[in-house]
Amino acid sequence: GAGVSQSPSNKVTEKGKDVELRCDPISGHTALYWYRQSLGQGLEFLIYFQGNSAPDKSGLPSDRFSAERTGGSVSTLTIQRTQQEDSAVYLCASSLAGGLGSEQYFGPGTRLTVT
Amino acid sequence: AQKITQTQPGMFVQEKEAVTLDCTYDTSDPSYGLFWYKQPSSGEMIFLIYQGSYDQQNATEGRYSLNFQKARKSANLVISASQLGDSAMYFCAMREPSGGYQKVTFGTGTKLQVIP
To answer: Residue B70: its pLDDT value, please?
Structure first.
């Protein structure tokens, strides 16, 4: 079946511009996560959606970052007034609802470069 | 304190040998899940193995096993009979309940290189 998809795969933008990154989770997965991975680093948690509950935004690094999830499916991560330090790979993951044992299925990521 | 600590930034192993990748974790919650993921140079994150905090037996999945030592709060990944395709970054992660959410925290990773 279809996995998690993300678009675009690569995005180059000028400093100060806004960008939108899209994630299509696996159908039926109610949990959706966004992470940021800088070159050679681990995964930095950004935001987590679970069903219709209020999202856990505790990982968003600044108010320039926001995300929404429409209809419990597709999610968009928006970065306003991009800065060079925003350059990274942005990974989306989804998992089934419920137990602590639900593994995450990751998308291929969007590589964002801010020039 | 770091939630997940991976102290080995890089490891080498001879092909066909076994290797252990270290992971320690920190939580005060009795319920949690521990995961290992593999990230090849192509970038995709691949789920390898899961261990629940209440599981009595160590988890195994093919050549992967998890050496779970609850009292020491360690969850080391053991890869047996290493193959060249095992060369990748390996991340340990923990999911725990937190404020009504289920937070997932990743370690900084270990880069494994398998030598022919």
So the answer is: 95
